[in-house]
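Thread title: Can someone regenerate the structure for this chain?

I was given the following input by a collaborator and told the matching structure tokens would be attached. They weren't. Posting the sequence so someone can regenerate them.
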Amino acid sequence: HERLQSVSMAEMSAVNSLRTSFRGLQLRVPLHGLRPRESSGILVDTGLIYLRLLLEEKKKTRQADELTLRILDIGCGSGALILSLVREFLQQHEQEHSQSFRIVGVGIDINDEALRDAEENQRELLPHEQLNGICSLSWHHVDFTKLPEAHKTLSKGNLNGISSAWGDFDLVLCNPPFLSSSAGIGRATTEETRCLVGGPTGLESYAAICHGIRECEKAAAIKVPLLREGGVVLFQTPGGTNGWTNTASVVRASGFEVVQALVDERGVQRCLVARINRKEE
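Best answer:
Regenerated them for you:
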């Protein structure tokens, strides 16, 4: 029992994880979880573009020492997307980030093993940035189908002092489960099914996330919105002929406007950029 109590998070992660590569990074992922796919890199590429635009916008309206870029990764898994995005953005702006801006990021998931791996991946990939206060990342057990409840709790600072990092996000990354129930039949593990199957049509997770973000906006008692005015959500969409089109229909029906569609290296629309349609409010 003494040995079990002294096992560190790093040791737990090492025992229950394997290594995989994503955009040149070596990442820990759970043994029975999904490995990040290179096709998801389109979210990182798009995120880099929008972070640069957001930074330029903030520089025009705020003092340099007040610039903070706030990122939320919904269903972050082992942190592949947000860690890659932050690392690459800091590398692109290496000459200026020490003085002009900082990044605050939050990753949420319901897989505790993946969240442990995300913390270890962060320690390995961003140690210098963390120590110098350039970048602050945190990882939390949150079900994306219950965003309003989580927002209410986290905005009040009732969970691990996260209130300073939570809310008012500029950019939200989201690669949700998008397979239909029938397409998910025969998956090797329960974890694969949870990560990949979105519901009967496969689009239910997109609707749930959009609805959750909108409900966070409506909470009168909460002063800090989940998504700041002008902030964007980047969705990876299903492949196939109608994947992007069907997702766009769900997103629009949920009170968002579609800002942009981006294609992957094969010319397939796989990323949808959306923001809250405030004209309907």
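The longest strand covers residues 227-236.
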